[in-house]
Amino acid sequence: MRKLAAGNWKMNGTRASLSEVEAINAALDDTDPTVVICPPASLLIPACEIGGKISIGAQDCHMASCGAHTGDISASQIADTGATYVIVGHSERRTDHSETNDVIKAKAQAAQKAGLIAIVCIGETLAEREAGETLAVLGQQMSGSIPDGATSQNTVIAYEPVWAIGTGLVPTLDQIDEAHRFMRDELLTTLGADAQNVSLLYGGSVKGSNADDIFSVSDVDGALVGGASISAHDFVPIIKALSRA
Ligand code: 13P
User: Fold this and answer.
1) What DSSP state is assigned to residue 82?
2) Counting atoms of ligand 1 from 1, which one is nearest the CA of 167?
């Protein structure tokens, strides 16, 4: 698995939105890459029931497998819905819920244990980029939040610059290239040859209109898409761009 188009619906979508999952599914053929939709937890079961080529993922999990954690969902509960992926460490979780690298590592470990593929998110803030700290931040986030036991089969890494999320701002292709090369090199030192098989996604204001350019960057294996993943009209062109890449 290298090419992967993932959609993060965040706190958007009701049952009426399942028709979009159906429409995305209907647009896929055998030449398309792996496609994952991460709807809100309320839609995991009906989204899985749609079947077809699409895989389903959750947007977060608790680090424990069960217990007194009101409002949380565990990785094994996610697996029980039929979902196969879970996003961990999204910057909105890091910010809104004060999640640290240690917490994210524990969540990714819980995902591994439950047999889910963890999409581990990393990315610098604008202040960090302007201070010239981007690669240092990415290095800390990778070493801090990717657990032992990570392999290309259970882990995907998404580079999402915080300042590019939902803003319409996109890094230059050189900036994306620099970040993704760095990520691949870091993985080579920790995972060895298997690093070449890990899917590295770019996320932040990906649209049909910029997808071809972004996917032309050599170590970009796909995208983690927010706003443009909620409708088939916007997401399918991104998937098709990845097919062409
Ligand atoms: P946008 O595609 O809406 O910028 O969101 C990116 C993102 O946060 C995906 O996880």
Assistant:
1) T
2) 4
pLDDT in tens, 33-88: 999 999 999 999 999 999 899 999 999 999 999 999 999 999 999 999 999 999 99
92 is catalytic: no
Closest CA to 221 of 134, 154, 157, 141: 157
Q: Atom 9, ligand 1: which residue's CA is nearest?
A: 226
- Is the pLDDT at 1 greater than 60, yes or no? no
Residues with CB under 6 A from ligand 1: 8, 90, 160, 165-166, 203-206, 224-228
CA atoms of 192 and 215, how far apart (whole Å) = 24
For residue 206, give both structure tokens: 């990906």
Per annotation, catalytic residue among 20, 62, 90, 124? 90
